[in-house]
């Protein structure tokens, strides 16, 4: 019983945190059709914001707005100076964002060095759930993510802004004709995607090892989720995160961490071979 509860908690944690990490990449691709190769570096910047805040002796909660503002501003500048000139040129945007990922990584190295960094959990200790002791910070994080994703889904489906976003995803040309400022929305989308990645990094900083190359793993995980769930769909993001997070958790529990990663890789390869559009791609 206890092992089943622990597996369920670990799987829920894996799914929710994976969805948080992938969200920024999904926003940018869903609205702009740009596969942002610098996505992992935005996550890393968010994590380093948390490290900087805690190193300064400030409350860790302040790292959340700092990460959002910092990565959002960088994303805004990148879209305005580089990406806006490369729309409808997927290979060029891929190369450009790959180059930007290297540039951002080098900037992190210059600012913080190559040493591994760590951030202490803002809330220590554990809580007992169904006979299992589980870290309080992970529980708080999962609850916050559940509330946040529910609010995001309602906003996406019910609000006027959500309608404009879905219109741009479905048909950018028609959205322009009916008066939606797609250029402004594109810039906001890239900034929001970058800010979402930064927020993910700051929230996960106490739970991961922080170093300049950490973004590569997050980028690969994000691509795996989009391959399985489908590109450009909020529903696909949650489906992909559930399958990939669940598979990785199951593989790691049964056979170890490496086996979990191999399981995810094999699932992604099978989807690329048998169902390359994913389970819930945008139409």
From TrEMBL:
Keywords: Amino-acid transport, Cell membrane, Membrane, Transmembrane, Transmembrane helix, Transport. It is a multi-pass membrane protein. The chain crosses the membrane at residues 12-35, 134-156, 188-208, 220-240, 252-274. InterPro entries: ABC_transp_permease, BCAA_transport_permease. Pfam families: BPD_transp_2. It is found in: Cell membrane. Signal peptide: none annotated. One of its GO terms (biological process) is amino acid transport. GO terms for molecular function: transmembrane transporter activity. One of its GO terms (cellular component) is plasma membrane. Its main location: membrane. CDD domains: TM_PBP1_LivH_like. Belongs to the binding-protein-dependent transport system permease family. LivHM subfamily. This is Amino acid/amide ABC transporter membrane protein 1, HAAT family. It comes from Epibacterium ulvae. The lineage of its organism: Bacteria, Pseudomonadati, Pseudomonadota, Alphaproteobacteria, Rhodobacterales.
């Amino acid at each position: 019983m206890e092992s089943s509860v622990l597996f369920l908690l670990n799987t829920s944690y894996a799914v929710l945190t994976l969805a948080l990490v992938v969200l920024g990449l999904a926003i940018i691709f869903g609205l702009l059709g740009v596969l942002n190769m610098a996505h992992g570096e935005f996550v890393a910047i968010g994590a380093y914001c948390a490290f900087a805040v805690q190193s300064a002796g400030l409350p860790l909660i302040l790292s959340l707005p700092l990460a959002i503002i910092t990565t959002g501003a960088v994303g805004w500048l990148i879209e305005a100076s580089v990406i806006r000139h490369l729309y409808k040129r997927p290979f060029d945007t891929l190369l450009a964002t790959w180059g930007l990922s290297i540039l951002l990584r080098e900037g992190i190295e210059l600012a913080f060095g190559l040493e591994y960094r760590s951030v202490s959990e803002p809330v220590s200790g554990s809580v007992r759930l169904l006979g299992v002791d589980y870290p309080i910070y992970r529980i708080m994080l999962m609850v916050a993510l559940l509330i946040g994703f529910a609010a995001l889904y309602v906003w996406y489906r019910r609000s006027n802004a959500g309608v404009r976003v879905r219109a741009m995803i479905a048909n950018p040309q028609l959205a322009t004709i009916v008066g939606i400022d797609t250029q402004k929305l594109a810039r906001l989308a890239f900034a929001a995607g970058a800010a979402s990645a930064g927020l993910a990094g700051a929230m996960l900083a106490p739970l991961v090892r922080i170093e300049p190359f950490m973004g590569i793993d997050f980028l690969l995980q994000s691509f795996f989720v989009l391959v399985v769930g489908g590109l450009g769909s909020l529903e696909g993001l949650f489906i992909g995160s559930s399958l990939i997070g669940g598979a990785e958790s199951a593989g790691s529990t049964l056979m170890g961490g490496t086996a979990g990663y191999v399981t995810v890789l094999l699932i992604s390869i099978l989807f690329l071979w048998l169902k390359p559009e994913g389970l819930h791609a945008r139409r």
